[in-house]
Known about the structure:
Blueprint: E1 2-4, H1 5-15, E2 20-23, H2 30-36, E3 43-46, H3 50-64, E4 68-72, H4 76-79, H5 82-90, E5 95-101, H6 117-121, E6 127-131, H7 137-149, E7 156-161, H8 162-166, E8 168-170, H9 183-188, H10 203-215, E9 219-223, H11 225-229, H12 233-243, E10 247-249, E11 264-267, H13 274-282, E12 285-289, E13 309-314, E14 328-331, H14 334-344, H15 351-357, H16 375-385, E15 391-394, H17 398-406, E16 415-416, H18 427-437, E17 443-448, H19 449-455, H20 459-464, E18 470-475, H21 480-488, H22 505-511, E19 515-519, H23 522-535, E20 539-544
Parallel strand pairs: 2-3, 2-4, 4-5, 5-7, 6-7, 9-10, 9-12, 10-11, 12-13, 13-14, 15-16, 15-17, 17-18, 18-20, 19-20
Antiparallel strand pairs: 1-8
Amino acid sequence: MELTGAQILMECLKEQGVDTIFGYPGGTILDVYDTLGQTPEINHYLVSHEQGAAHAADGYARSTGKVGVCFATSGPGCTNLVTGIATAYMDSSPVVAITCNVSENLLGKDSFQEVDITGITMPITKWNYMVRNVSELADVVREAFLVARTGRPGPVLIDIAKNVARQKYSYSYLPVSEHRRHGRLSALEEGREGGLRVPEVDESDVDILVEMLQAAERPLLVCGGGVVRSRAHEEFNYFANLVDAPVAITLMGAGGFRGRDPLTTGMIGMHGSQASNMAVDNCDLLVAFGCRFSDRVALKPSTFAKQAAIVQVDVDRSEINKNVKTTHHIIGDARRVLQLLNERVQPLHHEEWKKYVFSFPTETEYDEGGDHLTPKQISEVIARLCPSNTIVTTDVGQHQMWVAQHFHYDYPGQLVTSGGFGTMGFGLGAAIGAQVGNPGKRVIHVTGDGSFRMNCNELATEEHYGLPIITFVYDNQTLGMVRQWQTLIYGQRYSATTLDRPPDWVKLAEAYGLGGSRVSTVEELEAALTEALACGHGYVIDCVIDKDEMVRPMVSGGNHITDFLAV
Length: 567
């Protein structure tokens, strides 16, 4: 049948099973929105800002395992997506961003709201494409979803010229199972870079690792984001207990291994636990699954796990030996590699090694607060009163590290946070996406008073759609993480970090039609959270903490992993 480009786009989205889109309309994308309004199978969530749409699509993707979708118009509309796309790229999150540009006859003429968005986003997308001819639109959309979700996931951008949305062309329904064998997509099966082929695991590499595990006396496992992305948590849990090895968890690996498991040493790296970092320093075999050894994990690559043979398991060959030189590596999806290992490994025991590792703390103890709350008190109240399957989204800063350290995660997608790009302003949009994608679960948003200034406009979206998200503001009236560095490294010279200024967070919540409370004791926090859980709508809890509270432990960048500045 013959359809307009906008109609073809909607049909292709339905082929993919898309029922949720986050976006913001504008001139060049009006034909798409006109058709979207006549497509009842797809729900659209109008955000307050395009960056919120990108973060919502990302939060939806991370928490559900599906591909997230966002829309924006040309010019500032699509450039407002850029930070969200980069966030998804750094954390390997499958998002498809669809934008519209000016008509083809206006391209290259500095037309109103014209911008080369494919050029801008080329370094921060897994693939992008500008559609100039309606005849290629359907295959481009199908390819976009395949690329976004296959292998190492990542964001893809499609930019559609306005005239293409209006042109007509024949369309035939094609089930997802047939997409790989159709038209231009079939050629990609031969394997272009970043394309559609998942590398087959070389089983001889697996056999080598089995021998290394059997010979090791002090093994350490690292659970990275690849375990979460491949939803390999069950296989990883079985494997860890089979080899009886301590497990250190990266920020992006949270939920890939149960936070309360007796084998968990806590977070690894710059703000990792003493148990994790001492284990890295003293192990004789380190096996990392889906971990790229970023500078926040391997702070000084030349001395990282200096006594150990290092084995890296990753679906992306380009990550092997990029940051840390390995003794052995396995290319493949974490879940498949773990399945093969679980078939081969015999039960092992390492009681003396575990006794040593767990002689160090896996969490930081904080003094009681007095006239303010401590980070651990807040996390403990949340853990006690909220359902155990609560999804947690965060912004970036001290609060992010505290929640990673003290709130235990049991399944993939339970913690949704910006790791690689460190995006302040990520959390509330991500919470909206997570809540839309998981309507039966409680979603909380943890932020700081610095980060919340960057995304509080999305409270309007939260209120309009009746999303019962609870926001916890760690309010210390400062840019806490930057102040911490200024305290420890810059001689207590506090330049441009004080936030002794509006807004009043409770009044802001009320202005948006939501509930709010300011709390400074455990009793006040318990009462506010109990009210928030029962009220049925969004709620903001302003938690007073000390300005000089620090994330501990801390190892500064470039130092050896056990050179703690703050413990």
